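User: Okay, second chain of the day. Same drill as before: sequence in, structure tokens out.
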Amino acid sequence: MNQSEKILKKQRDFFATGVTQEASFRLEQLNKLKQVIQRFEPAILEALHHDLNKSELDTYSTELGMVLSEINYLTKNLVSWMKAKRVKTPLTHIGSRSFIYPEPYGVALIISPWNYPFQLTLAPLLGAMAAGNCAILKPSELSPHVSRVIAEMMSSQFPSEYIAVIEGGAEASTELLNLKFDKIFFTGSVVVGKIVAQAAAQYLTPVTLELGGKSPCIVHKDAKLDLAAKRIVWGKFLNAGQTCIAPDYLFVHKDVKEELVEHMQGYIRNFYGQDSQTMLQNNDLTVIVNDRHFQRLITYLERAHVLAGGGYDEKRRFIEPTILDQVDWNHPVMQEEIFGPILPVLEYEDLEEVIAQVNEHEKPLALYFFSENKGLQDRILQGISFGGGCFNDTVMHIVTPYLPFGGVGNSGNGAYHGKSSFEAFSHQKSILSQSTQFDLPVRYPSFKYALQAIRFLMK
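Assistant: Same drill. Structure tokens below.
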């Protein structure tokens, strides 16, 4: 029996005690997690700076702060979510009562990525804990300092029979996926997501997949261009573009393209540095995670028409926020999710053209549409299938606990955040409590007028 099997068995035994099903236990553990995060904050900040050169502002706003806010929201609402929900009962079931009981799956496996290595490991864990599960975490080996801190943090506060962290590369993930879990939650690429789904299928394990894809940003001619430019630049180049819901390409109406790009160039200078030399010398900007991803990204800059940026520092793995022009769907940058600080720009005349082109490709995880026209917003909403998004903003839909976050089709399945996190790790058990005070004879074949009665009741 290898290490993963031993931990899984210990967690199954612990779950079987029923301790995790108690509301007091769940709340206590969530509060303990909040305390240990606060205690390890300096180490978390340092680890994220090591792995991605993240600033303290970016780390707190996109990693630590989001997790702490989520804990507060879960602990405030958990007891009410745990209660059995009474639902209606049809006339055919007269005398009975119907309830839905949310119950934990058991032992969950959470596999997380490197781009937001702390937040995307802890956020699903919160849902697993709130729902009363045990969990095994597998952080990404591409962010090793964060992975180590998470392992140290968890082992300092929680016994491994409740929460465990397994570090390592692809071989560790493969070892885990060969085991039978009660729930699998995966965040990462489409390619690996398919492998996870296949592994889950052998045991019919329920799985949530948070993947990615090419998320469009569309700017219509009636948009408030200065504000649109500001929000697009922020959302695209946050975390050096290494965000699964970042605008992957920009569709802009030809009448306002030049003006929008000018505003975007201004905000790039305002946010990151007044010129190329300043940006390249700024050691506080987020870098690309490793050499392989860096080399992949700079190939997009070859023979490209650059409107802004384009410079890079190979030693630091830094790429300037870059805008590309004269791009079509055959360009290499449009063949896969970019996942870096490069934004290709396409122009359009008719919004229906945009809808048709987006729909010719896989369903995106996010979509952003800038327009003051409610009718056009409705047309986008009804005309394109996507995971979630914003009108007149980017990325911000992921921050609210009141909106479920998840993909559709190739961009994933299932959702989490807020109550959706609790539901993602809960089975909804349906119970009918039947009366014993009387027994309606109509359902039994011995009843003379059974057919007529059933027809009447079920019409």
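Residues 56-82 form the longest helix (27 residues).

User: Thanks, on to the next one.
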